[in-house]
Design goal:
The protein is an alpha/beta fold. The chain has 13 helices and twelve strands. Helix 2 runs parallel beside helix 12 and helix 9 packs parallel to helix 10.
Length: 386
């Protein structure tokens, strides 16, 4: 038999252990590192930009933590690979949100994966910063937890088409797009713009992972377009430009952000000479914050950053600015909710891509650059004077 005093002592020790464990759980939102999730395509067809994303986050976190962290706490990124597959991205999001108890998320690379993850974000009520995925539905869905610091499909398409219409006489376009939310969104935006201007668009599609585009390119070539517009990313885009050159296509080639990285240039092997595309960021930007970022990135990784690294680097600093204003939330749910409200009020926040102001839908107004590949490097065609 256990004596009364011993029984009391055992009960006291049990309660002490219980309260100690409770204090170590995610319910205490004001102690320990601030964990956030970063979902990206670290393997698969978009592994190259995925690596840039990871490095952009690592640089931002290192800088912030070295300077004392945020509100005296260190940032701790948790990386999860989605390989550009929506189902895998959903699993990664579930893990980060419900098991790892992250305060917020950043990601993903693809529009289709981002749209799939947004259902969890809405259900679990935590903010998500979207620095790269550009499908219009991401910020038109009514999901108040999503904030994007990148130009949408229509924004990019309109800016590129404005450039074409203002600087050329090209009015008949061949469009080859990947069969994803990203690719279809860009193609539809181009069709809408050209249709409103009385022009003509002939379109063909392909799937991610395809390597043979000769049939689509031949069909489009036979339509005798003034220009070809590629709505895809670097893996397939580099093959498309190579095969277009092999088929003797002389029409001007255009593309979007996925064709603005030096990895694309290396894969295209010179077939991209003269191609004109949009870009979110260029190392030659005169922006002071951008130049500091370029210098830090080169020192840490030995190569210049691309626009994917810049966009996600900027998103970490957007989150930092908001976290500094959160105060002392009572628990994780309160932390997430307060962070969302502060992000929604973000206005004219300086960044490497220019200032960020989120509208009522969580969309930032971002202007892209128009660049042209010339002898392995990029010349900025728009805006002038950079």
């Amino acid at each position: 038999m256990i004596g009364k005093r011993a029984h009391t002592l055992i009960l006291f020790l049990f309660l002490a252990i219980l309260f100690t464990l409770a204090g170590c759980t995610s319910g205490d939102a004001n102690k320990g590192p601030i964990k956030f999730g970063v979902i990206g395509a670290y393997t698969g067809p978009n592994a190259k930009p995925g690596q840039s994303m990871k490095q952009g986050v690592q640089l931002a976190v290192d800088e912030i933590n070295k300077a004392g962290g945020v509100a005296g706490r260190q940032l701790q990124p948790l990386f999860e690979d989605d390989a550009s597959v929506p189902a895998q991205s959903v699993s990664a999001t579930e893990k980060l949100v419900t098991k790892d108890d992250v305060v917020f998320l950043i990601g993903t690379f693809n529009s289709s994966t981002t749209l799939a993850d947004m259902k969890i974000i809405d259900r679990e009520k935590l903010p998500m910063l979207v620095p790269i995925a550009v499908a219009i539905d991401i910020t038109e869905s009514g999901n108040k937890w999503v904030f994007r610091n990148a130009a949408t499909n229509p924004m990019q398409a309109e800016q590129l088409m404005n450039f074409i219409y203002n600087n050329t006489k090209q009015r008949k376009f061949a469009v080859l797009h990947e069969n994803t939310d990203y690719g279809k969104g860009l193609a539809n935006a181009v069709k809408t713009y050209v249709g409103n201007q009385g022009g003509e668009v002939i379109a063909e599609s392909y799937s991610i992972g395809d390597t043979d585009f000769y049939a689509q390119l031949t069909k489009l070539k036979n339509a005798k377009p003034d220009a070809f517009i590629i709505c895809g990313n670097l893996s397939e885009g580099s093959q498309i430009t190579r095969q277009a050159k092999e088929l003797g296509i002389k029409a001007q080639l255009y593309g979007f952000g996925g064709l603005a990285s030096y990895d694309y240039n290396n894969l295209a092997g010179g077939a991209n000479e003269g191609l004109i595309c949009t870009s979110y960021f260029e190392v030659s930007s005169p922006n002071t914050l951008a130049q500091q970022f370029v210098k830090g990135y080169k020192e840490k990784f030995g190569v210049p950053p691309d626009m994917f690294a810049a966009a996600i680097y900027e998103s970490v600093y957007i989150a930092k600015s908001a976290i500094e204003k959160v105060g002392t939330p009572k628990d994780l749910a309160a932390f997430r909710s307060s962070l969302r409200d502060i992000l929604a009020a973000t206005k004219d926040l300086p960044g490497v891509q220019g200032p960020t102001t989120f509208d009522a839908k969580g969309q930032a107004a971002k202007e892209v650059m128009i660049v042209q590949w010339q002898k392995g490097d990029k010349k900025i065609l728009y805006p002038k004077g950079i």
